[in-house]
Amino acid sequence: MNPVFNLYKTGNKKATILLYGVIGDTFSEEGVSEKELAEELLEHGEIDELTVRINSPGGLVTAGIAIYNTLKNHKAKKIVEIDGMCASIATVIAMCGEKRVMHSGTRFMIHNPLTMAFGGKKELERSIERLNQIKEDVVEIYSSVAKLEKSKIEKMMDEETYLSPEEALENGFITEINKDVDKNITNYLKEYMQYTNVHKIKEKVEDEIMTKEELKSKFPNVYNEIVDEGKKQGETQERERIKKLDEFSNNAIVANVENAGEIIQNAKYINVKNLEEVSTEILLNGKMKPLVQETSLKGKGNGEQQKEEINPLDFSSRVDDAFNLGTIEGSTQMSEEEKRKMFLKAFEEA
Fold first, then answer.
1. CB–CB of 32/21 below 8 Å?
2. Where is 78: in which H helix or E strand?
3. Rounded Cα–Cα distance for residues 194 and 68 (Å)
4. Is 316 a catalytic site residue?
């Protein structure tokens, strides 16, 4: 987990977020990521009371605005506690709380938004215009909470104003000051121990193999994703199975099996089987339509022909024909098993 952003459980439907560090992960891999914070809140489940503890010099404006909106729009009651420095865009995040507390020795700093610009006059003018827009947005958020005149807030931002807890309270940026340092430290240590214990349990759970029921109960979103993926894979495999059976039913030799249609239909929808199983069943239990072939009358040299019905699956009557599919020197020494394999190869290629 990100070392400057942690969300941990502190009671029944209660949780605490630590925002300790730069806002946004653009400047540093250890920055507070607005995306990770939003995902953590979604995965954490039901929360009725959310404490946001801040010690941050600020950072990326867009990331801070996103974090402010994520927290502001969360249905839980928000309590903001400023544990050290709350500066720049971190002060905007602090405005998400219905209750905003500064502890002794902390500082609250607001200033104008900053940027880096490069280019000609038009590019610089557009940068200034954008900075003015950002300032207006930030002033709007401050004034919705602090109830100060916008002109006064703008002047404080122009002058890069540092406020003590007493000054922040006087101007309405916070709702109270906590001077009970001992109590604050005790509560923090208690929460930290709860956080540590929760993560020890979490690490232990991750080492154990969960049953299907446990996975469904503890991680319903993950369970549902796995089920949906399984359904999609199953549907794809089923379509492929039906397609292969349909193609197999159009095979020239299979078309001459009287009960092939019945076997294939049964395999599709009743006693489900794949192509390999169906072909084996047809080979063993198929009833071939008799084939008629003309042969020379034995003992007649006048070329007279006779018609003879044969069963293509009767190896005893077809082995010589299969054997004669290719006249190879020395082939008269082939075993019955080799003759059978040659016939099966011819059957598959038909």
1. yes
2. strand 77-87
3. 26
4. no
* Tens-digit pLDDT profile for residues 34-80: 988 998 888 887 899 999 999 999 999 999 999 999 999 999 999 99
**Three-state SS annotation for 255-307:** HHECCHHHHHHHHHHCCCCCHHHHHHHHHHHCCECCEEEEEECCCCCCCCEEE
* Active-site hit among 33, 88, 103, 279: 88
DSSP of 169-199: HHTTS-SEEE--HHHHHHHHHHHHHHHHHHH
Pairing of strands 291-296, 305-310: antiparallel
Residue 249 and residue 264 in contact, taking contact as beta carbons nearer than 8 Å: yes
d(CA 168, CA 111): 14
**Residue 164 DSSP code:** -
Alpha helices in 7-106 (DSSP H): 34-44, 61-72, 89-94
Assess contact for 256 and 291: CB atoms under 8 A: yes
Sign of the dihedral defined by the CA atoms of residues 33, 36, 42, 47, in that order? negative
* Cα gap 109→162, rounded to integer Å: 4
Q: Does 299 score more than 70 pLDDT?
A: no
pTM: 0.53
Marked catalytic residue, from 111, 127, 199, 331: 111
Annotated catalytic, 111?
A: yes
d(CA 329, CA 149): 108
Structure-token match 């900053």, residue found:
114
